[in-house]
Amino acid sequence: GGPHSPPHQYQQMMTYHGLSGAAALPPQFGMIPPDLYQQHCEITTTVPNANVGSVIGKSGAVLNDIITTSGAKVQISQKNDLVNGTDRRVTISGPLRSVHSAHVLILNRLHHGGPESGGM
C-alpha cells in the first residue's frame, strides 16, 4: 500500500467544533455514522488574500453558489481582520455533511481558480 494523504499544499489543520467526542474528522471520512452527518458543526480555515477572489467571485456569485450547493453557511472575514493581513478567515457552519461539502468546494476553487483581480 502507498500513502493516502491529500496534496500537501491544501493540507490544513481543521478543528470541527460541536462534534461530541470528535475534535477533528478522521481520514476515513466514509466511516462516519449517518446520524453524525446531520450534527451541527463549525470549522474555521484561512484563505490567502490573493486567492480570496476566486472563492468569492464577481459580486459574490461563486460564494453564493458554494452556499447554495452545499447548504452550509460560509462567512469570509474583512480584509484586515487578521493581524498579518495576508490571510482571510473563512468560517463554515451547518450540518457536518454541508460543512464538508462547502470546504471541498472552496478548496477546489483555490486549486483551480487561482488569483483573480477584483475589488476585494
Automatic annotation (TrEMBL):
InterPro entries per the UniProt record, alphabetical: KH_dom, KH_dom_type_1, KH_dom_type_1_sf
The keyword RNA-binding appears for this protein: yes
GO terms assigned for molecular function: RNA binding
Domain K Homology: 39-111
Alphabetical keyword list: Repeat, RNA-binding
PROSITE patterns assigned: KH_TYPE_1
UniProt superkingdom: Eukaryota
Pfam families, per database record: KH_1
PANTHER family (alphabetical): KH DOMAIN CONTAINING RNA BINDING PROTEIN
Name of the protein in its database record: K Homology domain-containing protein
